[in-house]
Amino acid sequence: MAGRGGADPVNGRGAQGRGSGRQARRFQPHSLPTRIGADPRQARWADAMKTALNREQISLPALAERVVGPLDLQGTHKLRRWLSNETTVPAHAIIELARAVGAHESDMLAAYGLRSPSISKLVRRAEEAEEREQQLRAHCAQEGRTTGDALFAAAAAPGGRWSVTVRPHWRGRRHRCHFADHVLLERVDAISERADAERDFAEVFERTAASWDATPLLVEGLPVGPLPPLIVHRFTAPHEPTAHHAPTDAPGVGAQGVVVTGLQWTGSYTVAALLAKALGWGLGSFARAARSVHGGARLDFALADEIMQDWLRRPDNSPRRVWAHVLTEPPGPTAPSARLLGDAGPDVRVIMMVPEPELIEIIAALSGAAPAELAAQSRAWGELLAPHPRLLHVPAPAPRAADGSVLRADDPRFLDAYFDASVDAAFDALRRLAGDRPVSALVPEQARLSDPFAALVAGGAQAASTGDPAAT
Fold first, then answer.
1. Helical H runs in 318-413?
2. Where are the stretches annotated Disordered (predicted)?
3. What share of the chain has pLDDT > 70, as a percent?
4. Which residue, among 155, 277, 272, has the nearest Cα to 210 in the 3D structure?
5. Got the DSSP string for 151-212?
6. Residue 150 has what pLDDT?
């Protein structure tokens, strides 16, 4: 039945969504070798494709479903003729079909003769090297996230020219977390200069993604030094998905990844970190990824947009990841964030943090902008990134005291309340991602055992969202 150019006899009725055992019984291998005909190159490619299809037990109807979007196929007619070497397969289809069966596109192009085997091997080696580099970067990021302060102290010890003071920075009342470390550097044998610190601690800056903390916020207990304090992020530092999480341990988000976006000071980084903790997913930042390319230099906005576009195009290349993104460009239809996030595919969920009016007043005071201008920007972004089932608007509440009064940045309670407001926003985002299910359904079992916030979501979401300290 499969003798006509490797055509699969399965008619596709009920092939998707049934038990894997039933699919395996229905599958019949595609016949090899392919008739050479007038094009031996396409016969070689068809043999390579059928080998991959047989290995993965993919029928032609199932393959057609996987490529119906990029190749605009109606049924299996074209596939059958390509694989039977009756009509010429276009080059772009070779790439999409390779991805659909889990084969390397370079190998399939080489099988057709469109790329030499030696170039294909070189591409594979380059990709393997890139993957190893990403793993090393992830390891360094994790190391810096957990031991950043110690790395500065260790780097200062051999020369004895720098004094290093570390102040752990904790945030939150209802959910306390070690948010970051503040590192104060002082040159003991000369006048302290930023350029000297950046030169002497260059490797540590890169490994920890530390930056000079210029935020106009009051950090209680932080001594005044000759240089601004460095902030080494722990809670919001990029990290890989937790090792216990597997694709089958599905939290049911219905997507390969999530992007949390919003104006500066709306909590997008903190909410993204909280979602990653609850889901057991990795945490990323397009801006920090762009900085890491240049070793911590000034942010290259164009590169950050490129990284975002690359991930949005193929989120399955880095699945189970929450990305933080701040809307820095002026709102407009041609703005990269509007084009890319507004048209994000079905494998991506976008969460936009929409500031409450009281929070806009606070952001204006922190940034030096006019409240009316910020309110107009927020409205414009809300229209450009209008809500729909895959793009969710979540209110970003203002920091409030226990009596409900809004706290300003000069209040000692501000940072704790600011973090608590992000906790509430993260619960709200999780409720929207969960839909009709309980929020706890999104949290993998091992995440609730290993992370306090994941445990809070699983066991105390309702009480925490009411502001009851007893919930934690």
1. 336-342, 357-367, 371-384
2. 1-37
3. 81
4. 155
5. HHHHHHTTT--EEEEEEEEEE-SSS-EEEEEEEEEEESSS---HHHHHHHTHHHHHHHT-EE
6. 79
The domain covering 257-459 belongs, at the CATH homologous superfamily level, to P-loop containing nucleotide triphosphate hydrolases (3.40.50.300)
CB 285 within 8 A of CB 322: no
pLDDT band at 472 (very low <50, low <70, confident <90, very high): very low
End-to-end CA distance of the chain: 64
Structure confidence at residue 378 (pLDDT): 96
Taking only the tens place, the pLDDT of each residue in 265-303 is 999 999 999 999 999 899 999 888 877 666 554 667 888
DSSP character at residue 18 = S
**DSSP states of 232-300:** EESTTS-BPPPTT--TTS----SSSEEEEEESTTS-HHHHHHHHHHHHT-EEEEHHHHHHHHTTS-S--
Please answer whether residues 253 and 280 qualify as being in contact, where contact means their C-beta atoms are separated by less than 8 angstroms: no
| Closest of 437, 438, 444 to residue 461, by C-alpha | 438
Place of tokens 């503040």: 182
Number of H helices, E strands in the chain: 18, 9
User: Between the CA atoms of 210, 216, 218 and 219, what dihedral angle is there, to the nearest 10 degrees?
Assistant: 0
List CB contacts of 158: < 8 A, sequence separation 6 or more: none
Place of tokens 């900085």: 291
Q: What is the pLDDT of residues 251-261, one digit of tens each?
A: 578 888 999 99
pLDDT tens digits along 420-450: 999 999 999 999 999 888 888 888 888 888 8
Between strands 211-212 and 230-233, the pairing is: antiparallel
| pTM (2 d.p.) | 0.67
Q: How far is it, in rounded angstroms, from Cα 321 to Cα 297?
A: 24
Query: Strand order in 211-212's β-sheet?
Result: 162-171, 177-187, 230-233, 211-212
Question: Buried b vs exposed e over 129-162: b needs ≥16 C-beta within 10 Å?
Answer: eeeeeeeebeebbeebbebbbbbbbebbeeeeeb
CATH class of 40-115: mainly alpha
